[in-house]
């Protein structure tokens, strides 16, 4: 009886577990511990965990599609844009439009830059061509060709496709388009406009080189305003 009582474990002593606490953890507790590990802030991570997190982020960036109209170039890829500041040393994107070539690193610029083109296309209305500061317009006589690629020159310039007019201000683009629209209306009415600096080449014209006037394309009759233009037009209709 005495020997048997010695073999019995004292109720005051904790039971001995042959397994470690980690191995005896319940599935629910293990899941909670795993979630706690995943939700660790960066300063609580080990160097190896930080490295894995960065690699995963880079993998997501690598696999992310590039919007239509743009190209992505890795830091070790040559984008072949002569005046690109990111060329062969930083991952970046380029707009594919031949009159643009805009380069950037921030992915949020996709929406902004696309909206910019839509706005400018509306302003130009097919009558102008835009060229960014780092893109050649191909016109040797253009005053902006000499400053191509200069760091101080970041403005786009615009060429009128109907005349030699060029500017950098979008407000002037709109105003110049209105002038052409007016000239188109004058031509549709059967007249041609001449400014004070232009010689109309009409023999004995008293307005040539002096004031703005309009010549009838059929009979070379000169008028000074739209009202006279309309009255003269009806003469040809009567005949």
Kindly state the mean pLDDT as a whole number? 76
Main β-sheet, in a few words? Answer: 3 strands, antiparallel
State the strand order across the main sheet.
Answer: 1-2-3
Task: Report how far the terminal alpha carbons are from each other.
Answer: 145 Å
Number of helices: 6
What portion of residues belong to β-strands?
5-15%
The gyration radius over C-alpha positions equals: 38 Å
Helix content: 25-40%
Assembly category = single chain
Instruction: Name the poorly predicted regions.
Output: 1-14, 17-23, 31-43, 57-61
State the total count of DSSP E strands: 9
Structural class: alpha+beta
Identify the overall geometry: elongated
Strand-and-helix sequence, N→C? HHHEEEHEEEHEEEH
What does this structure look like?
- This protein has 239 residues and is an alpha+beta fold.
- It has a domain at 189-239.
- Mean pLDDT is 76; it is low at 1-14, 17-23, 31-43 and 57-61.
- Helices cover 35% and strands 13% of the residues.
Question: Secondary structure elements and their pairing?
Answer:
Elements: H1 2-7, H2 27-38, H3 47-63, E1 70-73, E2 92-95, E3 103-104, H4 109-124, E4 128-131, E5 157-160, E6 166-167, H5 170-188, E7 191-194, E8 213-216, E9 222-223, H6 226-238
Antiparallel strand pairs: 1-2, 2-3, 4-5, 5-6, 7-8, 8-9
Keyphrases for this structure?
single chain; alpha+beta; 6 helices; 13% strand; 239 residues
Describe, in short, the structure shown.
Keywords: Metal-binding, Zinc, Zinc-finger. Helix content is 35%, strand content 13%.
